[in-house]
Every structure is written in structure tokens, then in C-alpha cells.
Design brief:
Largest sheet of chain A: 5 strands, antiparallel
CATH architecture of chain A: 4-Layer Sandwich
Distance between the termini of chain A: 39 Å
Number of helices of chain A: 9
Oligomer: homotetramer
Number of strands of chain A: 18
CATH superfamily of chain A: Chorismate synthase AroC
Protein name (chains A, B, C, D): Chorismate synthase
Strand order of the largest sheet of chain A: 1-2-3-7-4
Number of domains of chain A: 1
Family (chains A, B, C, D): Belongs to the chorismate synthase family.
Pfam families (chains A, B, C, D): Chorismate_synt
Largest interface: A-B, 124 and 124 residues
Shape of chain A: globular
GO molecular function (chains A, B, C, D): chorismate synthase activity; FMN binding
CATH class of chain A: Alpha Beta
CATH topology of chain A: Chorismate synthase, AroC fold
Function (chains A, B, C, D): This reaction introduces a second double bond into the aromatic ring system.
Helix content of chain A: 25-40%
Chain lengths: 361, 361, 361, 361
């Protein structure tokens, strides 16, 4: 299929430009009988929503999602679920300036050469606004996974140079950074305020964890759970790196250190991040992603226009000085969508399998 | 599709277990008219082949590939290309010991719980032996890409704690480590010899570069070029992390530093690794992957058996103390397969596009 | 993928229930640069629209389609095209009666057993109303194909017992039956009027023709052009049979009669219907489909309720006494979508092919 | 995906040319734990095998299939199953004559224009020899379906002008025509002998029936069970038409006649052929297919060569005067593969569904 669909048995197909009339998605393959209403999707949409703190873009979008099909009398019917969000706060004039020039490190140049034409308003399809539909679709997956005892949560593990140790989940929802350590929040706010004064942007590292995942999810050899997870996470705007478990730290580790030993009481460690041979082990699935600093900054930059002439670009508009701040719900969504698809695929092929071997706690 | 197929328009489907009679693949969607013979695939197969130095497994496999279809009178016909490699050196007795026990950090435990049954000989389908077919299929993609001026090459950028700076491509092929700096080879050999004495294993970092890629490859939004590349690279055995361009270093970078500025003479840097908005920019595509240390070591480890009872596992057999050493050709193959698929997909949708805008050198 | 997507490179994914808030579709893979506006889709939607004559359901639907993405300044951008049609005339009360009973020969029984739940209002997802989005998507394909000199048209070749010879294309658009022979229209009207008095329904045979298709479209071996065409046409509600070219008449033919001989001036006949070995020959692609009589009739029928108890079912509501009458634009759409997908797929794999052999006129 | 794969969760990908070294297939997604050996596949292969009677091609092929992976200790492991059949009786010289000319009604002309190159030996990929792998893969599906109480069988329902009523299944296996009425066999033999004397060929009609299929298989809206069945059956060489249930006879039927009424004792008829709304109803799935007469006859025919010059073609070689005679096992295979894929897909999405409503016997 073309590029706007994710998943194979539980699929999500999205459409929508930053400044078009609306964003939308079709969620196909959702099991029947799941209680679902628009409010269920709104919670995560609000967590991702712009303008919720002074540290994110000031674009005001209500991001109210409508369910257009697939739900009857409050329950999913098993048929395709249509979702739509109308765009309300589009200031296209903001973008007229960059109509004929390529913003450095943006998709302007590549879309232009791929399609020979581009919707320059706010980046059109390449805008992070597209991720709103991922979050809406991911919320459906999350709800279903919850009925199977699977919980997907994420947090910010690094903001620019500031690394953050995980402390507790409650803290994550109590601040606009999804920071798991309440004591570090003031430091993050001070850093962001200075960054704004510097008219610059910065990157971030997000961590996502899925608990309660049964062993067995993931398909050898190309559709490994970690491979599809990497696919989903890397497809998020601005993501430049993905790690499973120890990730790049594994390079300098020795086998005797990295291997997660097992005892009847369970695994003694989780360097693998819950995936062995591309299949879930029953441990927590742990992934980390790196987001680059947004390129939409007001510090002038060198570029060219569509004629190939040199120009200086200053991105005014309304932008996130750190796209990573709003990325946590998006990363959760992609992990939830990946697990959902693999849960259904595993069931389809292996329904009869009943492994009597004791499973590790 | 199920899990053994990679790609959408140029697809590769593989089969084969470590100790089964043979490995095979079907390469579908290869354009007609490409000169191709078995020798063309053999070069990369030999680069990946075990037993080629004392630093890799001593299993002896000729890895002679046969082309069974899709090639007529020395040229591809456009129909499915069938490939097969017979397994010759299978010492199944080596593995009888671990028939009923799960080797730590191996896929034994997860395959057992997914399927309720597993081919325990050498890990069966989860063995890195499977990657031989990726390399064979990748060689076909490489040859076609070469006719389009695209070249894919890789090298080892870190062995355990030893980081290696790139020096030149010729050096890469002149040593068993794919080390790009001839002066560092003795150091690597000494490290590996000590590692063997320690009866341990270690991880590695591989870098892959594609040059000559035109701008425009990659499909928004889920099938971004970097997302599919991450999928392909993460699907390689033992890979725990993937980076595009600066990867995780982007986290601490500022936008003014990370953004690759453009002038009529070209890009001034390549922090992005040749991908913007998920689409190739015309710069070199750069990816890095982290491979974990193999878990097959002779140092005893704690585990359980299929009854859930505690056991001690010592992996004898013949194994790579560093699976990363042979991973370079595999990583090249996955990048070539990804680029090939996207080249055909881009053409299909955008054949009429002729962008007159000057493209950056 | 799940079941609501058609095509591989040019894909259409639809959603929507007969009495839900709206119908929608995402058309992915449309080449950039195609002039497109909502009016372009409306023409075919109006041809399919209910209530346009006394011989079809009296349900009144404006079927106004909105384009929500993928088109910028009147031209397609190459990104996903979102389409939506709001439902306006829903009289759900009509259906309350059959909430707990299965209408004979309807999908009520099968949806109930597949999903354990169903939207009983007008058949929900199983309603022919779903085909409106196929027609809208098909209109996009038709427009693109037209730029390649390909034209897709259909007509009614049989209504119940009345077989109709093709006479001319202009006649087809001049009557509500898509009848190609103006002299037969009064006969069809008289038949339909009597049918209504009999409170019964009847089947129909539709023929679809694509002219200007270049040789080479279709992928061996499973994705043959005729196989995918059969897939698309058989997926239309009420279709029970598909023929390519002579179809079932081929059974009694001899090879000397059926084979289409070739001369430098062209083919001497077209028994094959424009497809040889699953690949287009350059001749007109000809397909025929059989539509069963709708089961929604006011003549009482025996059935059971959800408790398995016997009931008598009389379908009131507003229904088409012959669903075939409105099927012509739908059949055209499915052929256009199939050709569009294969045109892009063929290009992707065979762009470089330039066959110098003279092609038959 | 490219064109050589069938199915989505249970997939079959094939390769191989008529006169290449071998044919092969990869069956992916087969559930683990199914007892399977090569003999299990051989039975159907022998039913399809050429040279088994004087009424089929005299090419001698043992068609011995080897299982190269996915089966361990006599049981499927859930991993990809690799299959291969070596070609043994290839008389390529037979074909040198038609190297530069297009046989009428063959794929020669279309392959030439699609790929610009073709393997002319026996039609290469377009040869019906390719169907051997469908039969081998179908046999795996049949075995699994049997464990679910599903049985797929076919028979010849018409040979040229001779229509055959079904009488009993035992008769089908007792003659080379798969004729269900033993009393008609002499008539068929006489007809075929005369046909050979006439140096001509003829078409046939095959019927396939699946019994024991539970209600619920099939995915709305494009992946309807009947639509995918039509896809699979139409993809068989020489097939020009597909019917489900009453098929084209439905055109002249009235709703009061066609609709299959239900009582607590079951359905009162099966005009629908076991599919309602694209989903299985629990009744027998019934499909019919029309095969055209083979074009490989020794009666001279007009054609052109690759230069576009007029030529006379006489197909010597060894051919089936009626390809329909060997088509029954192939049609069974395609129905089995379609049902298998939909069984797994249905399970994946609907595992939790437990419909308490009494299901019709």
C-alpha cells in the first residue's frame, strides 16, 4: 500500500494538512464489542494539544474529534472507524513568506523534489499537526489493550542537555513536560525560558514503556516486534533515533553483562527491553527515541528559493521550541498501535497454541 | 502479509532454519533487463560468510547460492527470482543439550511461548544464518541501484569500547572487521583475542552510507524512508538501536546547530543523514546501528528449562564472539532493499514529475 | 491489511454506515499535479445517486462530497486525499422492526455471527450506500486515466429476462437504466412498473469497457489484471458473477474459435476481453457482472430472530427493486480503480522498459 | 506487495518458469503444530500432474515436492514453509520455433510489451506449470482446514458442450476428468478423442464446494470472502469467468425466488452459494469457473513476429487439449488458500466474539 497506512491487521490510515479544512483517519480491524466514545479519544488529544503551556506553540486548536462510523450504541461494531478533526486556527498568511523558499532542515525541499508541488502552508502534510490523528487512533488501541491488561505510558527522559531519571508515573501527568521527576521541572522551565530568549530550539529524548504484554507478540523475521516498533517511532516527525532496551549502550557491553538471566522467579534484568528474537518476552517493552530540535526558529538561516537562488530564511509563525515536549503521547500512540496490530496477528496464526510451560512472572 | 516479507513493490520473502536442509528467498518486483548471474550474489555472500577469519564462528558453509527463476539468458525477466542455498555443515548434536532449556537472551523462550514448539537446532529460524538470504537479495538490489548511480556501503564504527573514525573505503574491504582505518586493525585483533580468552562476547556499532540517492524517495507519513530503514535495520538479529544522521546526538543539539543550511553550492552539513520529512534530500543517506553482544558464550548462565525448573546453561557450539563483525554486509543489504523498494514506489506514483528547479549538488 | 482497503500503490480505504453520520474515504497514492475539484467527483456521484427516478429507492441523499486534503490550489499534491459525504436522509425508525430478526438473503445473519453485534439500521456497513465512496474515489482514478487516454464506461446489458444489445454510448446517459439502446427503454420501464406491482425485485447484468489501455498492465501470477478486476467487481454489493471477455461462453468454444488471431493491422477479434496471461493486450478491457435481485421486498419471507425463533419478515423501508440499475457507475469505478493501481505498479517496476516492437493498433 | 503473493495473514508466494530449473513457494503464516510431511502434498500434486492420462499433455514430470523449512520433527513450527519442485522433463528445443513470434491468445505478446523481454520456453512464467506450487500450498491449507472440519472438493461440471450433473464425490476421483457421474465418462473420452483428431482444443467449467465453513469468514467491504475467492480463481491460467452460487442465473431471477429463506431447521435453499454480504453463512461455499480452450493447437493460426511482420503459427510441443481437465485440484487449492487466510484473519480480529445465538445447521 501507499505510505499513509500503518499496521497490517489493525490498520490506521490518515490524511490531512496543517492548514487544510480537516485531519482524519480510518481505523480498520478494531475488534467488535469495545465500549468507545469521543471522550475516550479526547484525553490523549488534549495531552498532545498545542497551546496548553507557554513552552509549546501558541496555535489554538480545540482538536475535537468526531467518530463518524464503526461505533453503534456506544460500542465498536468491528467495521472501519472513521475519525475527523476540523482545523480551526489556521493563519495561512503566516506562511506566505516561505511560499517560494525552502526552510532549512524542513521537508520543503524534499516535498518539492518528490512531487513538484507542495502545500507550503505550515508544511502541509509534513507538519507535526498530522500526529493528532495518530494520537486519536492510538487511544483506541490503548483502550483495547487495557482490556487485555496491557498499559502503555511514556515520559521525557532528556531535554536538551538535561538528562532526567525516572521517578514516578504520577509526576509525568502533573507537568507540561511529561517529566517523571517533579523536582526537575523548575530546571526544565528555566531552560526553556532561556531558549526562547535565545530564539533557538532544542532536541529531546522520550521513553515509552508497555507493561503487561504477554510473551509471543512479534513475527519473524522482518516483522519483528522491535522492528515494527522502530518503524512506527521513527515515522514520528523529527525522530532521528530509536533504541530498544539498552540500545546503543549494548555496543560496549559484554555478553555476560547484557544477557538477561532467568530464574523460576523471573528475569533478573531487562537489558533486552522486553524483546528477544523480535518477539515479546513478557517483560516490559522499553523503547527510547531521539527528537531533533525543530528547525523553525527565528534566528536567520541560509537557504535557497525555488529558483535555486540564495535567500535568508527566518521562520516566524507559531512553533514549538522543543517538539519533544508534546511527543510523549505520540510515542505512546505508535507503541500502542504496534502492539495492537501484533496482538491481532499473533492471535490469528496462533489461536490454538496453549503453552503449558510456566511463564515467567 | 505475514512476517517473512520485506518491501511493498520490490519484495523479498525468505525461509530457512539454521539446521534445516536449505535457506531460500523470493525476490519479487525486480525490473526486467538487469544482467544477473549467481556470481553477482556470491561476492556479498562471501563477505558475510562464517569461518572466514578466526574472529568469527568456525562453522564452515560454502553459501553457494542458486538462482532458480526470474533470470533468462543472463538477464532478469521481471518475474519472481527464486534463490536457494543448501545448508552443508550442520552439527545438530551440538544442540541436543539445549533442547529442553532456554538459553538466556536467546529467542528460545519467546519462540516457545509464541508457537508452543520450536526447532532448537541452532536457534532454527531465529538464527543469524537467516541473514544469508537478505544478503543475496540485497546484492540484486545493489546491482540495480548501481545502474541508477546509487552506491551502498558500510563499515564498523565501534567494536565494544573501541570507537573507530572513518578513514577510507578501501581499508574496509582489507580486513575481517570491515574497519575503515587500517591502523586500528591490530588493536581490534588484540581485543578479540582477549575476549575469546575471557570466554565472553561484545557488541558493535555499524554505519551504513548510501551515496547518489536522488531527492524524493520515501512516502509520507508512515512509510518515511527513514522509518522503513529503521524497520529493516532493526529487523537484523541482535540489533538494539538505529540512528539516522546525528541520531541521539540531536537530543542535546540546538536548532541553529542541527539544521543543515543550503546554498546554491549545496548543503553546508548533513546532520539529518540525508532524510528530511522522511524523504531523501539528495545528500548521502547515513544510518548507524547498535548490535548487542551475542548471548552464546561459554561462561555459565542461570536459566530455566521447559518445565520452569532452574538450570545452568553453557553454550558450546560454534558462535561469533561479536556478531557485529559479520553484520556490515547485512546492514548494507537492508539499506539497499529499502532504497530499491522506495525507488520503484516513487516512480510508480511520480513518473510524470519533472522538477525543473535546480537540485543541490 | 484489513478489509476496507482496495489497491496496493493507488489505494482507497473507505468507512461509513448507511445511517451513520457520514461516509468517507482516503485515496492514497494519487500522482501529483492532477487538476481536481469537488465538482469532478459529483458527476459520477449524481449518476449513482438514489431517488433520481421512480425506478430506484426514494431515499433522498444530496451526496455532496467534500475534499478535505491532498488538493491544493486546485491540483493534487501527491498526498492522501480525504473525502467525506454527510448522510442527511436517515429514517432509522424504518428499521427498528428488523432489529432482532434476520432479513433473508441479507448480511444481517452473517454480520451477527461474525461480530456478535451489528448496526441494524439499513444494514449498516453492509448497505449499498457504502458504494458512494467507491464512486467518488473512482472518479479521481477516471480523471487521471483520462490524461493517459484511458476511458472507462459501462452500461446495462440485461435487466431480469430482458437482454440488451449494445447500440451506442450516448444513449446510455440518456435514460435512468444506463441502457445503450434507446428503443428498449419503454420495455424496461414497463417491466419495472409491473415488478413494483408484484412487490418483487429482479437481477441485472452490467457490462464495463475500458478503452485506450496500453499493453502491459497486470502482475503475474496472483495479481493478474483480470483477477484483481474480478476481485473489485465481485466486492460490489449483490454481485454474484464476473466474466472477462467471452467469460462462460468460452466453455463451449474451441481453441480455433476462441483464440484472437493477430495481423499487422491488429487483433481480428476480442474473445479474451483485452487480457492475455493476466496482462492487458492493448485491446478494450471488457468485463460483465451479474447482480442478484435485492432481497428487500415487501413480499413476506420466512426467517428467524436472534433467539433462533421462526419469524415472518416483510421489508418496508425504501429500497431499489433492482440494485443493478444504479450499479453501472459503481462497476466503472471499480474498473477504474483497478486500472489505476496497475498503471502505477507497472510504471514502478518497468519505467525503463521501452519496447521497440510495433504495438498492435 | 508485488504480484506473486496471495493472501494477507496466510500467504503464499511462488516462483518458477515452465522450463527453468525449478518451481518453488513460500507458505507463510501456517499455524504451528500441524502434522505435515511431503507425502501430504504429493496426493494433490499427483491429481494435477501431467501425463496421467492420454487426455492431457504427455510431458512427464514426477512433480516431487521437497519441504525445505517450517517443519520440524513432522510438525509445522509456525515459521515460513519453503517448498521446491525440480523441473525434470524440459524439451526447450520444442519452443525455439516460437522464440520470435507471438502465439495467438497466449501471453507472449503481453509479456513482451510489459517486460520488453520474455522467457519463451513453454511460456516461461505464464505457463500453467506454475500452478503446481498453488496445489502444493493449497494442500497445506486443506490439511489445516480439515482439522477445523472444513472440506474443499471440486469436480468438472461441463466439458465443452457437455454439461454434467453432480452425482457423487467418489466418482470424481475415479476418472481422469474429475467427472462426478461415472456414466458420462465414456462420452467425455469419445469427445476428447475426436477433439484430438480435429487438432483442436475446448473449454470447461469447474465447480468447487467447501463444506463445514463456519459463519463469519470474510472482511467487509473490499476483502469479501467471495471477492477474494473470485480473485484467487480468476488468477488461474485460462479462467475467464467466476460465479458464486447461482452466479449469472441470478440476473433473471426474482427476489422472491433467489432469497434463501431461513427456519430454525436451517436454510431452505442455497442460491447465494454460502456467502451473504461477503461473509460466510455456514452453508456450503459454492463457486464455478469457466476455463477457455487452450490456444496451443496444431491448427495453423495467423499472428505477427517481434518485428510486427505477419507469420503463421503452429504450436507443436506437448499441450493439454483441454486445460480444464487438470484444473479441478488447482481450483480446490485456490479456494482452500482463500478460506485459510480468512479463517486466520477472522480469528485475529474476533477471537473474543462468542455469539450465543443458535447457528443454523
Amino acid at each position: 500500500m501507499s505510505g499513509n497506512t500503518f499496521g497490517k491487521l489493525f490498520t490506521v490510515t490518515t490524511f490531512g494538512e496543517s492548514h487544510g479544512p480537516a485531519l482524519g483517519a480510518i481505523v480498520d480491524g478494531c475488534p467488535p464489542g469495545l465500549p468507545l466514545c469521543e471522550e475516550d479519544l479526547q484525553h490523549d488529544l488534549d495531552r498532545r494539544r498545542p497551546g496548553s503551556s507557554r513552552h509549546t506553540t501558541q496555535r489554538q486548536e480545540a482538536d475535537r474529534v468526531r467518530i463518524l462510523s464503526g461505533v453503534f450504541e456506544g460500542v465498536t461494531t468491528g467495521t472501519a472507524i472513521g475519525l475527523v478533526i476540523e482545523n480551526t486556527d489556521q493563519r495561512s498568511k503566516d506562511y506566505s513568506k516561505i511560499k517560494d523558499r525552502f526552510r532549512p532542515a524542513h521537508a520543503d525541499y524534499t516535498y518539492h523534489h518528490k512531487y513538484g508541488i507542495r502545500d507550503y502552508r505550515g508544511g502541509g502534510r509534513s507538519s507535526a499537526r498530522e500526529t493528532a490523528m495518530r494520537v486519536a487512533a492510538g487511544a483506541i488501541a490503548k483502550r483495547y489493550l487495557a482490556t487485555c491488561g496491557i498499559r502503555v505510558r511514556g515520559y521525557m527522559s532528556q531535554l536538551g542537555p538535561i538528562a532526567i531519571e525516572f521517578r514516578d508515573w504520577d509526576a509525568v501527568e502533573a507537568n507540561p513536560f511529561f517529566c517523571p521527576d517533579p523536582d526537575r521541572v523548575p530546571e526544565l522551565e528555566a531552560y526553556m525560558d532561556q531558549l526562547r530568549r535565545d530564539q533557538d530550539s532544542v532536541g529531546a529524548r522520550i521513553s515509552v514503556v508497555a507493561e503487561g504484554v504477554p510473551p509471543g507478540l512479534g513475527e519473524p523475521v522482518f516483522d519483528r516486534l522491535d522492528a515494527e516498533l522502530a518503524h512506527g517511532l521513527m515515522s514520528i516527525n523529527a525522530v532521528k533515533g530509536v533504541e530498544i532496551g539498552d540500545g546503543f549502550a549494548s555496543v560496549a557491553q559484554r555478553g555476560s553483562e547484557h544477557r538477561d538471566e532467568m530464574t523460576p522467579e523471573g528475569f533478573l534484568s531487562n537489558h533486552a527491553g522486553g524483546v528477544l528474537g523480535g518477539i515479546s518476552s513478557g517483560q516490559a517493552i522499553i523503547a527510547h527515541l531521539a527528537l531533533k530540535p525543530t528547525s523553525s526558529i527565528t534566528t536567520p538561516g541560509r537557504s535557497i528559493d525555488v529558483e535555486g537562488q540564495p535567500v535568508e530564511v527566518v521562520t516566524k509563525g507559531r512553533h514549538d521550541p522543543c517538539v519533544g515536549i508534546r511527543a510523549t503521547p505520540i510515542a505512546e500512540a505508535m507503541m500502542a498501535l504496534t502492539l495492537m496490530d501484533h496482538l491481532l496477528r499473533h492471535r490469528g496464526q496462533n489461536q490454538d497454541v496453549s503453552v503449558t510451560t510456566p511463564r515467567l512472572p
